[in-house]
Amino acid sequence: MFKRKYFTLIALLLVVALALAGCGGGGSEEKKDAAPDAASEVIKIGVYEPLTGTNAAGGEMTVEGIKLANQLFPEVLGKKVELVIVDNKSEKQEAANAVERLVSKDKVNVIIGSYGSSLSMAGGPIAKDAGIPVIGCSPTNPAVTLGNDYYFRVCFIDPFQGTVMANFAYETLGAKKAAIIQDVQQDYSVGLNNYFEKAFKQLAGEDAIVAKVNYNTGDKDFSSQLTAIKDKNPDVIFAPGNFTESGILVEKARELGINVPILGGDTWEAEEFLNRVKNTKDIYFSTHFDATQPVTEMSKKFKEEYEKAYAGKQVNAFGALGFDAYILALDAITRANSDDPKAIRDALAATKDFEGATGVITLDTHGDATKTAIIKKVADGQFVYEGKVDPK
Fold first, then answer.
1. In this structure, are residues 244 and 215 in contact, taking their beta carbons and an 8 Å threshold?
2. Nearest to residue 179, comparing CAs of 222, 159, 208, 206?
3. Handedness of CA 164, 169, 173, 175 (dihedral sign)
4. In a designed cystine with 196, which of 162, 231, 271, 310 is the match (CB 3.0 to 4.6 A)?
5. Number of neighbouring beta carbons within 10 Å of residue 308
6. Residue 3, SS3 per DSSP
7. DSSP-based helix, strand, coil % in the chain, nearest 5
8. Looking at domain 159-287, which of 3.20.20.70, 3.40.50.2300, 3.90.79.10, 3.90.180.10 is its CATH number?
9. CA-CA distance, 48 to 46, in Å (whole number)?
């Protein structure tokens, strides 16, 4: 009787152990399962972008460019390329969740994203731990790639962008005093303002920043900040931030009689911003692309194909950056002659003189692109090319 009970118990334990093994319940087992299937006939490119929430317009433009590139170049190494697009909802936790899903459930070979430096920084560590390379389209904060050798980007970064706008304010607009307005909840806004402040002080002197005021994402009333700035009588205002809050801020500044030039960064290239400020003069911002000034043969191709695919929409920088991120991913897979994520990472790190729609891209030791910046202004209800600045 004892022996019978004993063998029954052993059999039950074996059944339970086999069932648990089948579920892959251990942490180390999950990490192993995160690797893409090497025998698959499909190469998966994950995309995590904000398609809802405060940054949705930027994410949608970016995804349009990625989809367009996928339509034009649907295969690599003889395999079909499948896009797996996840909405990060403009929230940091959702961005982290999106990357976790892409690496663990969808088992992508490479990831593209995200619009917004904060969202990119939320997803970066997860991709690094899983060994999946990521190509950022427009996150310009240096911290996105700092300490993460699996994160790359096709856009220039804030030290360059902030310096470009400081030089433009001082040399082109003749400004000697500047005021700064920043969204303290956005790493993008805070970082870009810091680089502008440093560069402008070097040009105009330590006392050249006459005011620096803050607001939070989602604010809709900027009367107190603008009134404080007006009293300081600056020659220019530098106020990069989300296109929604920035549009309201610029509109309010003009209502209060503040008529000095107002400068921003690349997030301002959005219809939502333009709709608020299209009748306003002296609005300038840095960006990555201008359809009237093609810098490569790929620039021309992107413009032509975008206008055919999205009739009635303005060709924009975020679409071009999404386009570039996708074709750079395929270029890296081709150079690696492999869809293995580690091999793709190594090929990305070796990128030099890659011809994209937004310019010729070389990735430095941090994975950041060195490339030309475009300056645009608002005129006649449109974004208009003002000039360009090459990296030194």
1. no
2. 208
3. negative
4. 162
5. 9
6. helix
7. 45, 20, 35
8. 3.40.50.2300
9. 7
Q: Could you check whether 42-156+292-371 and 159-287 share the same CATH topology? A: yes
pLDDT at 17: 40
pLDDT computed for residue 392 by the predictor:
64
Closest to 136 measured CA to CA, from 2, 301, 266, 228: 266
CA distances from 221 to 238, 242, 251, 263, 370 (A): 18, 15, 11, 19, 37
Q: What is the DSSP string of 371-388?
A: --EEEEEEETTEEEEEEE
pLDDT score for 28: 37
**Strands 178-183, 236-238: parallel, antiparallel or unpaired by DSSP?**
parallel
What's the number of CA atoms in the CB half-sphere (13 Å) around residue 187?
16
Is residue 171 within 8 Å of 164, Cβ to Cβ? no
Structure tokens at 372: 């030309």
Predicted confidence band of residue 40 (pLDDT cuts 50, 70, 90): confident
- Name the strands in the sheet holding 151-153, side by side, starting at the edge strand that comes first in the sequence: 75-76, 79-87, 42-49, 110-112, 134-136, 151-153
Radius of gyration of the chain (CA): 24
Strand partners, 375: 286, 387
- Mean pLDDT score, 233-247: 96
Q: Residue 7: CB partners within 8 Å, gap ≥ 6?
A: none
Q: What is the pLDDT of residues 47-102, one digit of tens each?
A: 999 999 989 999 999 999 999 999 999 999 999 999 999 999 999 999 999 999 99
**Residues β-bridged to residue 389:** 373
Question: Which residue carries 């299937």 as its tokens?
Answer: 37
pLDDT, position 23: 35
CA distances from 171 to 110, 200, 282, 363 (A): 42, 10, 15, 29
42-156+292-371: CATH architecture: 3-Layer(aba) Sandwich (3.40)
Which H or E run includes 235? none
Decide if pLDDT at 334 tops 50: yes
Torsion angles phi and psi, residue 304, rounded to 5: -60, -45
Q: Which residue has the tokens 């004892």?
A: 2
Identify the DSSP state of 143: G
